[in-house]
Amino acid sequence: MRRTKKPGQSIPLIALLIVVLIGAAGLAVDVGNDYAQQRNTVRATNAAALAGMNAVIRGYDDQSIGKVIQQSLKSNNVDGIYSDPNAQALPNQRTIRALYLDSKGNPLARCNIGTCGNVPTGVTYIQIEVNGTVDTYFARVLQRPTLPVGAQAFAGRCAPIDGVYPIAVQDSTIANGKFAPPADTTKRVEPYYNANYRDPNWPVPLSKRRIYIDDNAATPGNFSFLRWRSAQNAGNAPELAAMLKAPGNLSAGFNEVTPWPDPGSQPPSSYPLKPGELNADDWVHGNSGRSNSADVRAALDEHIALHDVMILPLVKPAVEDPDPGINSAFRVTGLGAFYLVGYDLTGSNPYFDFVYIGEANSSACLSTPSVASNKLGVSGPVFFWPRWGAPQTQQPIAFQVIMDVSGSMSWNFQGQGNMNGTGATLQCEPYGNVPAVDCPHGGGDYWKTQSERRIYVLKEALRGAGGFIEKMRDGDVMRVLAFSDGSISAGPGWTGDKAALKDTVLNAGKYNNNPYLTSGGTPGPQALQKAVQQFASTPPPAQYNGQAYRKVVIYLTDGVANVFLNGVTNDARDVCSDLTVTVARNTALCQYDVDGYPATASKQRRPISEMINQASILKTTYSDLQLFVVALANVNPLGLDFVASSPNMLYLAKTSTVVDDILTLIFGKALGPCSEKDDGKWLNYIDPAHTAALNPPNNLPTGIYGYVYLFDSNKTPLNVPWSGAGADPRPAAQKNAVPVTQDGFDGKLGFEIPVADGLNAGLYYMQGYVQYKAALPDGDGASRIYSGPIVNGSAADYVPFRLTPEQVLGSAVVLDPLRLDLPNGFKLCP
Prior knowledge:
Blueprint: H1 11-57, H2 62-75, E1 80-82, E2 94-101, E3 125-135, E4 146-158, E5 169-170, E6 174-175, E7 178-179, E8 193-197, E9 206-212, E10 226-227, H3 237-244, E11 283-286, H4 294-306, E12 310-315, E13 329-344, E14 351-359, E15 363-367, E16 375-384, E17 387-391, E18 397-404, E19 416-418, E20 425-427, H5 454-463, H6 468-471, E21 477-484, E22 487-490, H7 498-507, H8 524-537, E23 543-544, E24 547-548, E25 550-557, H9 581-585, H10 607-621, E26 626-632, H11 640-643, E27 650-653, H12 659-671, E28 674-678, E29 706-711, E30 737-742, E31 749-753, E32 759-760, E33 762-773, E34 783-786, E35 788-791, E36 794-795, E37 799-803, E38 812-814, E39 818-821
C-alpha cells in the first residue's frame, strides 16, 4: 500500500523546532549575560568589602561606612539598596546585606552596616552580600523571565603588604595624630612645616613636614632608607629602586633583625611575633648609604604624580645591627600613611616633604570562608506592623469616594457579560470553578440586565434611598473621584449638598451617555495619585462648628489594577505571556511585583505595587486619614489589604446584596467608637512606653517582647536550650521557643541561638510573635499580640530558612528579618 503525505503535517515539528532554537538562543544569550553579570557582581562585592573594611580601619562612623560600601558597588556598575523592610528596591537594583563580624567571624550585631548607629567594638571582619536578578531576553519564552545573580565577600584586617615603602620616619615627629612642629622655631613655616596643609583629596586639613634623611643618624652609616631582607646586597641602588617602585615589593620577603638587637630593652616573650611579616615591635635593617639613582628618583616622582598613599614604618632611634657589616637596626613602633609632595636627594642635607594622613597599622584584605563547624548559631531581626483603633469624637467627616468605572463594572457579580450587551452569555471573569473566557469587547460585552450590573448596584448603594449619601450628617462633606483608563474625573469638589452629590455619582464614568455603562481599564495607581494631589491642592474645609474634619477615603473597585502610573495598560507580556492579553490584564499576579519578576520595560512598578505605594503616600502624608477598600465581585484582593489602613478595613462584596450593608458598616465605623489605624512602617524597637501589659497567661518576663518558634524540615518543633536571662520560663510543650529581646548593641528587636547551642545545616521553619502597646496619645493604649508572619507581602503560616555553613566565615549567621502583623481576622475596633 502506497503512503502519501498529508499537507501541513510538518508544521507542528517546525513549531517545536522553533521553540528549541529559541531555547538554545536563550541558553547562549541569557546564560552568557547572566554569567557576565555574575562575574561583575562578584568583583563589585569583593571591592565593596575591601572599601568598607578600609573605612572601618580609618575610623569612619557607621553611616559613612555604609555609604562607602554602597558607593563602591555603584562605581562598579552595581546599584544597590540596603535590605530593609521599609525600603523598596527599584527595578534592577540589587539588595545589600552588610554585617560587622568579630575576630571569630561571628556577627557583632544584627543590624545592617550603616543603620547600627555606632560601630561595634572589636570589628575584625565585615560581610557583604549582594543579591538580585537579571532580566532575560529569550529564556522568558521558557517561563524564565529572570536569572539570579548574587555574591558574598568577607574582608578583614591584615598587616599592610602593598604600598609599604622602605623610608623610616621617627615616631617622635608624630604627636596627637599630626606632625609635631620642628624644634627650630624658624622652621615652623613653609617649606619646612605646615600644620594646616590642604589636600584636594582629603576633607580636613592635614599636616606637612620636611623630614631630613640624616635625621635618623645615631650610628655610623645610619640613614632614613631601610631594607626588607637581611642580605647585604638587598639594599643596593637597584634593590632600593625596586622597593620604592609602586606598589613596593614587601610581598617578596621580609627578614626581621634577629636576635633582639637592643641590650637596653627587654624583648617580648616571643620575637618575632609573626616571622616574615612587618609588624609593630619588629626590628628592621637599616640601609647604609644614600642612593640618588635615576630609578630611585623615577619611583619617587611617580608617587608624587599619582598622589599615592605611601605606608612608611614609624621607628625609634637606631641601634647597631648585630649582622656583620650592617650599621643600624630600627625598632618599628607602627606604620603611618603619608603623601610625598617633594624631595631633594642631592647636597649635604637631603630631605623628603611628607604629608601625614594617619595610622596605617592594618589594611583590608579578603577572607575566604572555611567550615568551622557544621552547627551554626542563629540570630535574626524581628519587625512588626503597629496597628490600633483610634478613639473618635463626633467630628464632621470629609468623605473622599474613589469609584472604579472601568469596563468590568458593566458585568454582573458572577463575572458574566453578554456579547455586545445582547448576545450570548460570556464568562468574562472566573467564578467559582467556572473558568474565564475572553470578552473581546471588554465593557462593551456588558450584562444585559441593567439592575444586576455592578455599576448600577454600587451607584444605588451610594445615591439611592437610604444610601450612603443620605446618611451624611449636617457638616459632613463628600468629593467623588471616578476612574478608568479613559479618564480620571473629579466631581465639583467638597460639598454637603446631597442632591448635587447624587447627580455626581449618577454621571460618574457614564459611557455613551448611559450612566450604567462603563468602559476602559483599571488605573488604580493613577486614581490614588490623583487623590494625593487633590488632598494637597484642595484639602477639606478646616472646621465645622469649631471641630476639625476627619478624613475618610473609600476606594471601590471590581478589577485588578492594570494600568501603569504613566497611563499605559500593562498587558504583562513579560511575565504572563502564556495568558491572553485580556486574561493577563485581569490576573493579579501579572500586575504585581512578585519576587523574581524582571523589571518592566518602562522600569516602573507594576500597577498593584504602585497602587500600594500611592496609598502609602496618602496614609503617611495624612496620618489622621482612614482608608477603606471595597473589593466588588470576585476581584483578587492581592495588595488591597495594604492599600487599606488595616486589613480589617478591606471588605469583600462578592454578591450584589452585601454592597449596601458594607457601605453602611463603613459609615458606622467612620462615625463609631474608633477607626483602625496603622503606623505606616515596620518597627523593630519597643520603648518602655510601648511595652505591652497583658494579663496571664500572656504576660511576659521583663526584657522579653515575644518568642520565635523553630521547627525542623518536617515542621516538627525543635528542642532548643533556653537562651534568655534567668530560669527557663517555657512550658514543656514550647521548648522550641527562643525569646525576642532587644539587642544590647543597638536596642533593636531580635532573637539569638548562641553558637554553643547551634543548629545543624539544613532547612528549617519559624513562627513567632511580639507584644506591643499602642500607647496614648497617638494610639489607643491597648496591648496586642502580633503573630501573623508576612512573606513576600502576604500572610503565611511559616517562614522558611536554610543554614549553610559553607557560606559563613565563623560559626553564626544572621537571618533575613522576621516580619509580623496582627493575625488575619483580628478586629482592632469592637
